[in-house]
């Protein structure tokens, strides 16, 4: 039974990979979407395309390997704003915090 199979697979606290064996392609996609695993194999097992992202869910793994997902998992965005103007230039031109009732646009 498909529902019972998905429930049994998802009952585990781990979710690294899952194998699905079926001749019904629609069922394969449906079950793969419902199973909480980082990688689902259909009619095969333990094969992986090195360019495809993969990693565990729940208590399996420590992030993602390969693909854009791995890059995003191991990096953070950070903005750095540097004012290279002299103090005098800054006083003359930097009016962002100047007291004024005038509406100003940033950017």
Can I get a quick summary?
This protein is an alpha+beta fold and 107 residues long. It has helices spanning 2-10, 25-34, 67-73, 87-93, and strands spanning 14-15, 17-20, 39-42, 57-58.
Describe this structure in words.
There is one protein chain. The chain is of the alpha+beta class. The chain has a domain at about 1-75: Aldehyde Dehydrogenase, Chain A, domain 2 (3-Layer(aba) Sandwich), CATH 3.40.309.10. About 30% of the residues lie in helices and about 10% in strands. The chain has helices spanning about 1-10, 25-35, 65-75, 85-95, and strands at about 15, 15-20, 40, 55-60. The strands form two sheets. It has a two-stranded antiparallel sheet with strand order 1-4. Strands 2-3 form a two-stranded parallel sheet. β2 (about 15-20), α2 (about 25-35) and β3 form a beta-alpha-beta unit. The longest helix is centred in the N-terminal third of the chain and has 10 residues, at about 25-35. It starts with a helix and ends in a 14-residue tail after the last helix. The model has no long low-confidence stretch (mean pLDDT about 85).
């Amino acid at each position: 039974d498909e529902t019972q199979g998905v429930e049994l697979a998802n009952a585990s606290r781990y979710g690294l990979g899952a194998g699905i064996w079926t001749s019904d392609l629609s069922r394969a996609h449906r079950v793969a979407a419902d199973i909480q695993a980082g990688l689902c194999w259909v009619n095969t097992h333990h094969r992986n395309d090195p360019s495809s992202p993969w990693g565990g869910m729940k208590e399996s793994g420590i992030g993602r390997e390969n693909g854009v997902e791995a890059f995003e998992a191991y990096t953070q965005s950070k903005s750095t704003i540097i004012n290279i103007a002299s103090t005098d230039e800054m006083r003359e031109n930097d009016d962002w915090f100047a007291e004024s009732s005038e509406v100003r646009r940033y950017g």
